[in-house]
Structure formats: C-alpha cells, structure tokens
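Lab notebook page, bench 4
Experiment: in silico fold of construct C2
Operator: M.H.
Input chain length: 98 residues
Purpose: comparison with the prior construct
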Amino acid sequence: MEYSKITKLVSDNTVTGVNKQISKSKDMVALEQVAQSFETYFYSLILKNARQAKLAEGLTNENKIFGEMLDKNFSKIVSSQNRSEISESIINQFKKYI
C-alpha cells in the first residue's frame, strides 16, 4: 500500500474511534441525567405520600399547594446533592448498553 493510503486509513480509524468515544460520553451523561430524574421523582413520591398520610393534617388548601411545591424542590435538591444507591444502580444496570 502507498503511504498516503495507509495514512488516510489510520486517520479515518482514529476519527471514527474519537467519534465513538464522544458518542459514548454523551450517552453516559444522558444516562446520569435520567437516573437523577428518576431519583427526584422517587423522593417526590415519598414526600407526597408522607404529606398525605400525616403531615397534611390541619393544613389549608393554600398550604397544601405550597407544601407540594416545597416537596418538589426538596426532591430536586436532595437528588442533585447526594447520589444515592438508586441512581447508582440504574447507571450500573444500563451502562452496559452504551
């Protein structure tokens, strides 16, 4: 083979490999975002059920609405600051498909 053909072949393979790595990296970031979203939703359900069970006694309708908003924000904060076993297990389960 000619030197130029070999150089082009190596260059093409390198570019393809880099593109695959970039794609894998983007997929991993997307998986982490999905795992965090699920975790946020999970915490939101826990707080919602807790509020319905015991915490909501004696609250007016306006307080219930603000309580729901507060629960959603708490869920986002907790899931963004602390990666729990929930999101870790989701990532571990699905990263083999990336």
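Observations: The longest helix spans residues 3-55. The CA atoms of residues 32 and 68 lie 25 Å apart.
Next step: discuss at group meeting.
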